[in-house]
Amino acid sequence: MLRPSYPIETERLTLRPFQEGDLESLYAYQSLPEVARFLYWEPRSLDESRSFLKQKMGASGIEKEGDWLVLAVVWRETGDLIGEVNLQWRSREHRQGEIGYIFNPGYHGRGFATEAAEVVLRLGFEGLDLHRVCGRLDGRNAASARVLERLGMRREAHLVQNEIVKGEWSDEVVYAMLRQEWDARPAS
């Protein structure tokens, strides 16, 4: 079980559960074709974003295998909600988890995704005592691959044309890190 104390602060960011007032900022990036490009969903309408916001608001802790922790990422300098990070507890028996992130493109290229994703990686290893955490992405998403590499995750697999996504065959790339690799990382 994982129930972090909120807010979680990094050098530049505040991570917290989603709130009702986040709808406009959430919709601002969920509605963009470039955000949905490498994800399973199409750009979302305001009503779809409202529905997903309710789900995200209920994902502030992990109680059982399969649960997701989803956190809003706020840039403290401006107070803007700039994206989200998540952690899923994939297997209790095998102590496995998965991380993910989605950011508004207006904030790409500043290291925010790496800074925020490091928090959920830490929560997975140190909060849930996971043995292995992975990150999965569309093989064409080079920017997301760079985030996982900056976190120190290693590329484990490249699955060629393993899924049909949005009507076309898509590759999937899997990165992962073991707890012992997390513990051996240089302090950041």
Number of beta strands: 8
> Span from first to last CA?
26 Å
Residue stretches low in confidence (pLDDT < 50, at least 5 long) are none
Radius of gyration from CA coordinates: 16 Å
Major sheet description:
8 strands, mixed
Order of helices and strands: EEHHHEEEHEHEEH
Q: Given the structure, what is the number of helices?
A: 6
| Residues in β-strands, percent | 25-35%
Helix content: 25-40%
Instruction: Provide the structure class.
Output: alpha+beta
Broad shape: globular
The neighbouring-strand order within the major sheet is 1-2-3-4-5-6-8-7
Mean pLDDT: 96
Keywords for this structure?
single chain, 188 residues, alpha+beta, eight-stranded mixed beta sheet, 6 helices, 8 strands, globular
How would you explain this protein's 3D organization?
InterPro entries: Acyl_CoA_acyltransferase, GNAT_dom, N-acetyltransferase. This protein is α+β, with helices and mostly antiparallel strands and 188 residues long. It contains six helices and eight strands; from the N terminus they run ββαααβββαβαββα. It has helices spanning 23-30, 33-36, 46-57, 112-127, 142-150, 179-184; strands spanning 8-9, 13-16, 68-75, 80-91, 96-103, 132-138, 154-165, 168-178. Strands 1-2-3-4-5-6-8-7 form an eight-stranded mixed sheet, with helices on both faces. A hairpin with a 4-residue loop joins β3 (68-75) and β4 (80-91). The mean pLDDT is 96.
